[in-house]
């Protein structure tokens, strides 16, 4: 393949369609070409979903009740505990980038999941030991008053493309089941048998997940690693900078690698691929494809001359960044439900019966009880029904799914603010303790919001189909969680600093006390509701920018582009994705 590529660079031609198809080859566990009838599909995905269920079961039991452990066992204050938890979870999701990069570039999905699965298992074991040994915990202080396996499906196959949508919904169903068990059974074990036993059960769940992963080895369809995924991207930027003074030819067919841009080549380019290159979006990158006309036919370095396909991928990558960024505030809201809302529940009446008390962290299981019913109904009934009207394999496009979820998230914080104000007033003015079920609306609304936003974002990124970058792009979606949790830590610190200096809450800040009856958590929730709504408006702008469709009279001109959603429509065999 490398010799062919060098020969084609010498001739100034791009890879042919048949050669590009070889990039999509998948192998079985012995390294032989996979058989579509034996490998991949939902049978193989079921083992990976098993890993996901058990893994999320373990990590959710730790993450969602971690604030209780940090406060009661590690003896940190409320605001510091919240920041510790959000920073920890943010770092966990940020490290997904490392896994995605190694998967696409060197290891492949199976070995990446297996290796890092054992690393995670080791972490659970160490955490259990730390919680069990008193010498490993600090004494009380005076201030105390959570990779992807979509490659089992072939997006270019119409039937497989529809199954891919089903897979993402099934993956979220598995996630919901894991969360539900973690937030009920495992949190109950942590509460009644000790955190050390609870962390040990999380380790056992992770071990079961790894057994599930290994059990499906014979059925997996594996994509061989293709080397560093960042090198072709870097080459485009370097070549564009080096040729920044060049002028793009008026005929896009003169650009390097544009010989394949013919209407019949729907697997790689649209019928108007040249117009995609000559777009107002990131037009400076087109210069990376300009061939030097010095009459010597000298082969140029790949760091000075890139193909149309390379530039196309970089343009798509840059275009999806605003969509990704628009989900960060959404995950900042999620951070509150895993930190302050848990403490909010601990200040309420947790009795279910005379002898049974609900652990505050288990309140987060309520939306997952709803989702294990809603998700199958959504995929079984809503998606086929909506597909008849929209033509999208997913029922509605991932962009619309994300937008609807972001819109709902605002109402989660509105409900949280109203309920916290009611709880605080009852406790302070009437000396009453409200039932913990009063704060269930904020969890229910956000759970429904997450079903749309989280799944839509993963599906949106995966279906960009950037060559050899599926795992990395899926990992990028988890960075939204990371940045959202980091933003939560920043907001808590800033709000405390600003409100304490302004004296708006008695000098301690909205979140400056360990007692929520003295803090103003309700005002913090209102702040997040406002930020969430502004973020939704921001998303509307960028999603419209991303999928903007020029007028028909202008779309054929070299200065305009095929809209991104239509571009994906042609590229994936008219499957109307995203």
TrEMBL record:
<keyword id="KW-1133">Transmembrane helix</keyword>
<feature type="transmembrane region" description="Helical">
    <location>
        <begin position="439"/>
        <end position="462"/>
    </location>
</feature>
<dbReference type="Pfam" id="PF00854">
    <property type="entry name" value="PTR2"/>
</dbReference>
<feature type="transmembrane region" description="Helical">
    <location>
        <begin position="523"/>
        <end position="542"/>
    </location>
</feature>
<dbReference type="GO" id="GO:0016020">
    <property type="term" value="C:membrane"/>
</dbReference>
<feature type="transmembrane region" description="Helical">
    <location>
        <begin position="108"/>
        <end position="129"/>
    </location>
</feature>
<dbReference type="InterPro" id="IPR000109">
    <property type="entry name" value="POT_fam"/>
</dbReference>
<keyword id="KW-0812">Transmembrane</keyword>
<feature type="transmembrane region" description="Helical">
    <location>
        <begin position="366"/>
        <end position="386"/>
    </location>
</feature>
<feature type="transmembrane region" description="Helical">
    <location>
        <begin position="471"/>
        <end position="495"/>
    </location>
</feature>
<feature type="transmembrane region" description="Helical">
    <location>
        <begin position="166"/>
        <end position="189"/>
    </location>
</feature>
<feature type="transmembrane region" description="Helical">
    <location>
        <begin position="316"/>
        <end position="337"/>
    </location>
</feature>
<protein>
    <submittedName>
        <fullName>Protein NRT1/ PTR FAMILY 4.3-like</fullName>
    </submittedName>
</protein>
<keyword id="KW-0472">Membrane</keyword>
<feature type="transmembrane region" description="Helical">
    <location>
        <begin position="398"/>
        <end position="419"/>
    </location>
</feature>
<dbReference type="GO" id="GO:0022857">
    <property type="term" value="F:transmembrane transporter activity"/>
</dbReference>
<comment type="similarity">
    <text>Belongs to the major facilitator superfamily. Proton-dependent oligopeptide transporter (POT/PTR) (TC 2.A.17) family.</text>
</comment>
<feature type="transmembrane region" description="Helical">
    <location>
        <begin position="84"/>
        <end position="102"/>
    </location>
</feature>
<feature type="transmembrane region" description="Helical">
    <location>
        <begin position="201"/>
        <end position="220"/>
    </location>
</feature>
<dbReference type="InterPro" id="IPR036259">
    <property type="entry name" value="MFS_trans_sf"/>
</dbReference>
<feature type="region of interest" description="Disordered">
    <location>
        <begin position="551"/>
        <end position="578"/>
    </location>
</feature>
<feature type="compositionally biased region" description="Basic and acidic residues">
    <location>
        <begin position="566"/>
        <end position="578"/>
    </location>
</feature>
């Amino acid at each position: 393949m490398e010799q062919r590529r060098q020969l084609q660079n010498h001739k100034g031609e791009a890879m042919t369609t048949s050669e590009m198809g070889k990039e999509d080859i998948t192998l079985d566990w012995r390294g032989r070409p996979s058989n579509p009838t034996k490998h991949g599909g939902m049978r193989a995905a079921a083992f990976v979903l098993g890993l996901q269920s058990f893994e999320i079961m373990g990590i959710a039991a730790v993450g969602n009740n971690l604030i209780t452990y940090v406060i009661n066992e590690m003896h940190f204050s409320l605001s510091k505990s919240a920041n510790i938890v959000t920073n920890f979870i943010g770092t966990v999701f940020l490290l997904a980038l490392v896994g995605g990069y190694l998967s696409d570039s060197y290891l492949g999905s199976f070995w990446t999941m297996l290796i890092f699965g054992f690393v995670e298992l080791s972490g659970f074991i160490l955490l259990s030991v730390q919680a069990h040994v008193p010498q490993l915990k600090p004494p009380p202080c005076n201030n105390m008053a959570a990779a992807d396996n979509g490659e089992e499906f072939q997006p270019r196959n119409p039937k497989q493309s529809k199954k891919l949508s089903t897979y993402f919904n099934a993956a979220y169903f598995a996630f919901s089941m894991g969360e539900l068990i973690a937030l009920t059974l495992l949190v109950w074990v942590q509460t009644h048998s000790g955190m050390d036993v609870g962390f040990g059960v999380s380790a056992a769940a992770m071990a079961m997940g790894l057994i599930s992963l290994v059990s499906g080895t014979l059925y997996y369809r594996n994509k061989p690693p293709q080397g560093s995924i960042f090198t072709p991207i870097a080459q485009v930027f370097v070549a564009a900078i080096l040729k920044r003074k060049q002028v793009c030819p008026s005929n896009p067919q003169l650009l390097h690698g544009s010989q394949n841009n013919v209407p019949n080549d729907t697997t790689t380019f649209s019928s108007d691929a040249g117009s995609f290159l000559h777009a107002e979006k990131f037009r400076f990158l087109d210069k990376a494809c300009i061939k030097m006309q010095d009459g010597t036919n000298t082969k140029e370095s790949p760091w000075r001359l890139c193909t149309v396909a390379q530039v196309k991928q970089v343009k798509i990558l840059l275009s999806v960044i605003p969509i990704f960024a628009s989900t960060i505030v959404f995950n900042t809201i999620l951070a509150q439900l895993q930190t302050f809302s848990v403490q909010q529940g601990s200040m309420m009446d947790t009795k279910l019966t005379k002898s049974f008390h609900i652990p505050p962290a288990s309140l987060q299981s309520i939306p997952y009880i709803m989702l294990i019913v809603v998700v199958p109904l959504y995929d079984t009934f809503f998606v086929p029904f909506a597909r008849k009207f929209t033509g999208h394999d997913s029922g509605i496009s991932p962009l619309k799914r994300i937008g609807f979820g972001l819109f709902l998230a605002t109402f989660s914080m509105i409900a949280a603010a109203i309920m916290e104000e009611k709880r605080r007033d009852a406790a302070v003015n009437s000396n009453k303790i409200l039932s913990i079920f009063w704060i269930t609306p904020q969890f229910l609304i956000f759970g429904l919001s997450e079903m749309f936003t989280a799944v839509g974002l993963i599906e949106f990124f995966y279906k960009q189909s950037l060559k050899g970058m599926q795992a990395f792009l899926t990992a990028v979606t988890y960075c939204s969680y990371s940045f959202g949790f980091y933003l939560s830590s920043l907001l808590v610190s800033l709000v405390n600093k600003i409100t304490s200096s302004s004296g708006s809450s008695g000098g301690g800040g909205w979140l400056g006390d360990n007692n929520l009856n003295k803090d103003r958590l309700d005002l913090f929730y209102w702040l997040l509701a406002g930020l969430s709504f502004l973020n939704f408006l921001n998303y509307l702008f960028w999603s419209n920018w991303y999928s903007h469709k020029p007028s028909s009279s202008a779309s054929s001109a070299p200065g305009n582009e095929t809209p991104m959603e239509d571009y994906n429509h042609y590229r994936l065999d008219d499957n109307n994705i995203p």
